[in-house]
C-alpha cells in the first residue's frame, strides 16, 4: 500500500490499532507499546483481550496536550503579573549612627586579628617543641627490637633456648603399571 493510500485510510478510520497509531504519530510501534504499558497514552482494550485500540480524537488530543508557550505569550504573562502585583520600593539610607558604628567595628577588628595571629603562632611553636622533646626522649631510651616470629618448624628446646628444627616425613607414592 502506498503512503498516500495509507494516510487516506487512517483519515477514514475512527478506531486505530498500534501500527496505525505508529504511522499516524511517526513513532515506532515499540514506543507506542511502551507508552501503553506505562499508561501515558489513552487507549482501549476489550475485556480479557490482548489487542490495543485507540480513538483517533484521543490521539489528536494527546499529541497536542503539551503546548509550549511562545516568547511573546511569556512576556505578556510577565507584564500582566507585574501590573497586578504591587511593588514596594524600599530605599536604604544609612543613618549617621549606623555609619559611625561600622567605622568603630572596623577599628575593633584590627587588634583582634593581630592577637589571633600571635596566639596561633604560639600554639604552633608549642606543638613543635613537644614533638622534638618526645623524639629526643625516644632516642635516649633506645629502641627495643621486637621478638622475631618463629616458624612452625622451629621450636625452642628445653635446654637454654636452643633452636631445633622438626623434620617432617615425606610420603612416597607407589606407582603401579597397568597392563
Average pLDDT works out at 75
Architecture (CATH level 2) name of the domain at 3-63: Orthogonal Bundle
Radius of gyration, whole Å? 46 Å
Query: Can you identify the CATH class of the domain at 3-63?
Result: Mainly Alpha
Q: Which percent range describes the beta-strand content?
A: 5-15%
Biggest sheet overview: 3 strands, antiparallel
Q: Oligomer, anyone? A: single chain
Distance between the termini: 79 Å
* Largest sheet, spatial ordering of strands: 1-3-2
Estimate percent helicity.
40-55%
CATH topology of the domain at 3-63: Arc Repressor Mutant, subunit A
Structural class: mainly alpha
Structure annotation, total helices: 6
Number of strands: 5
SSE run: HEHHEEHHHEE
**Which spans of ≥5 residues are poorly predicted at pLDDT below 50?**
none
The global form is flat
Descriptive overview:
The protein has 179 residues and is mostly helical. The chain has a domain at 3-63: Arc Repressor Mutant, subunit A. Helix content is 53%, strand content 8%. It contains 6 helices and 5 strands, in the order αβααββαααββ. It has a 3-stranded antiparallel sheet. α2 (18-25) packs across α3 (29-37). The longest helix is centred in the middle third of the chain and has 46 residues, at 96-141. It is flat and about 105 Å long. It starts with a helix and ends in a 14-residue tail after the last strand.
